[in-house]
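hey so i finally got around to running the thing on that chain from the lab meeting. sorry it took forever, my laptop kept dying and i had to restart like 3 times. anyway pasting the input first so we r on the same page abt which one it is
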Amino acid sequence: MKKELIDLLCRKSFQYSKEPVFKLASGRISNFYINCKPVTLNPRGMFVIGHLVFDAIKDSNIAGVGGLTFGADPIAVATAFVSGLKEKPIDAFSIRKNIKDHGIIRCIEGDLKRGSRVAIIDDVATTGASTITAIERARAEGMEVVKAVILVDRQEGGSDNIRKYIDDVTAIITRDELLACWNILNSDK
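ok and heres what got predicted. didnt touch it at all, straight out
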């Protein structure tokens, strides 16, 4: 399934330029850009991602999987769905970027209780800042964060930065794997 995900991401989400032209959320300018939404919101992409992320967390004894909205949401839902199919249910949750100011004021949506063991997920890690924010917010809400899973690691220090907050960090796909696929697909252009 990993090979299929690399192919889907390479065809639908990965853009490359010899000159750095893509402005990233971090403010950096890069030679490549990865927008995972065309794959994380695609039926086959959800199927493959759900299985791969579930495989990465299934032995972590966790109650929930989620991260900052919107990048983590479809990954969390796909993973929770697969966990149900595998009869090892793990709830999905979403962490708001801004805490709502009405109702029960909290930043996590989902059916988790304080003290729940959770995995934080993210679609892409460059500096790791959004994953770290999610880890900090989950901990502030009383969650025990035991693992982080990144769908695509841009290999620019993000995973190392995340490891300063949690030891167990897994990347499903790396930039090098996407670039190798892109080079094969574009070798005759």
